[in-house]
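User: Can you predict the 3D structure for this chain?
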Amino acid sequence: MIQLTTRQKEILIEIGNTLIPSLEKVGEASAYWERKASDMPLVEQIVEIISSLPLEEQKEFKSLLNLMDSRALGLTWMGPLKSFSNLSTEQRGRLMVKWATSPISDIRKGFNSLKKLIGIVFYGYSDTNGNPNWKDIGYPGLMIGNDIRESDDSRLDMYQIQSNEMISCDIVVIGSGAGGGVVAAELVKKGYDVIVLEKGSYISENEMSGRELEMLGKTYDRKGAFSSNDGAITILAGSCVGGGTTVNWSASFRTPDYILEEWAKEHGNPHFISSDYQKYFDMIEQRTNINTELSIHNPQNSKLFEGAEKLGYQAGIIPRNVAPPKTGTDIRQYWKSQGYGGLGDAWGYKQGTMKTFLKDAVEGGARIFADTRVEKINHAGGKVTGVLAVQKDKNGHANNLTITCKKVVLSAGALHTPVILRKSGLNHPQIGRNLYLHPVNAVSAEYDEPIEAWYGPMMTAVCDEFIRLDGNFGYKLETPPLHCGFMALSTPWVSGEQYKRDMMNIPNLGAFIVLTRDKYGGKVTVGKEGRPLVDYKLNAYDKRHLLHGLKEATKIHVAAGARKIRLLHNNIYECVIGKDNVDDFIQNIDRINWSKNRFMLYSAHQMGTCRMGGRDKDHPIKPTGETREIDNLFVADASAFPRCSGVNPMLSIQAMALYISEHI
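Assistant: Here is the predicted structure, written as structure tokens:
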């Protein structure tokens, strides 16, 4: 756990109370206006989040607080040479505005990290009594209750070692998400003795509380605070048993034919366009109940679908991996509860690997070890001999786990798979390169009627009008589930009063995300602690597509009847319908400064760092999924994608994993 000094804690509280101050307002919400950041467990929660980050980033955060306690702070905003504590309330506010729009990227990075941390604690934290802000901002809070929640009849057994142990099996599968879950189930069917290692924890359905900050901490890598080295893109990656399938938004697209053709012809993977490959999609869809019949729009998805159709754009319904309600279930509650599935599905409707393939694997004899970090894959004479891992118990005590095995399947995801390969001595120059992130920004809008974007199926509508804007590259328009903590992350800040007022409008807020198929990638390297570090810069080519998407998303909001449009930028750029000129607003999007850390950028899809293909020098992984350097070592996750999928990748990963399992 990171240790902050008394002064660092005091500075953090002062910053928090500047961003979210106590203000006097007369009316029903007076308690909300009077409540300041430090009235929530601010320091305790931020310390917990920062402690999940690599030591390099922890040190950087402490340096940021030290800077705030220094007279040199004045040089960062051309203000008086005083520490933050010695500035007036008005000066503190001006400093924050200056930092948000500073010409220096690292200063903007500092502002963004502080604003996001403080915002999500103030609005996203809750205990058994909920969050005192929720009532006044119109957020309903948790839906967990015996009246609507199914009994947890699907609990999986986890294996816990009590001391350093040496065990053996036929095959070790590293990772339990979309790739690892499928492979484990298929190998068990073949009669292999399989062990699954998962670095994240096992969170049963009864432990999925629906509390936003708590569940981010339990189910996402680095408690949801993973970002690129420069802080410009926030990376959301599942880290729990079930991986991304436990926390994703259920969208289940087949890999488009034109992408499969690209992967086949440009990268030497003929299997992607063989007549047999489509059967893998069929098999996954059947096992995970992928359908469109249960994709019933909430108001936010309705706005996207209807607005796109009004403009003559291609609008569709998203297939999703969800089960129908059980007999006697309240249909309205069934529908509403699905909006919480990005925090783990407490009701068990989402058919992720915990409900399907991992369940199949365990029933066939597979053993799952959660809270188990792989240090390296052992090999000798060019062949796999085993795995060295470390498992932590509930008290944080670590025991070494040494496994001897004949084969290893690495499905740790595009961030961790290349790191494990490097730590295991593999040297192919392309390992860790070609990281694609599907960079996302959004356009939010206020409507006259309630949107309540936290209720209902998370993603049911899609606009595919611009997926091939230039060749195979473009973007999809979709919707995110919006809970108040995530809204606090994304809401621009220019003053404490504006920020609090904007958060009171969230019941009427909807957002359309621009999911860009990036042509130019980044890379993953190994940090000092052996953890992944991400270097990714949004290329000008991909940025043009992103901005094109922001303009089209704005048009769709207007067509759907929005009353006010806003961009997710450190400056507030908004358009009030009926007052401002919409055409001018759209044209001016290209003129805004979109340099890094001036706007919110997210990734929920990480792909391509160990890509599969037919050329020795370009592809660390053979078309069968086996590594070129070590026999019997396979990769079966999104890192094997030759390029990004252009669609939400879960089904693409699962189909590819099913194909690879036939070659193991």
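The CA atoms of residues 468 and 474 lie 5 Å apart. Residues 6-125 form one domain.
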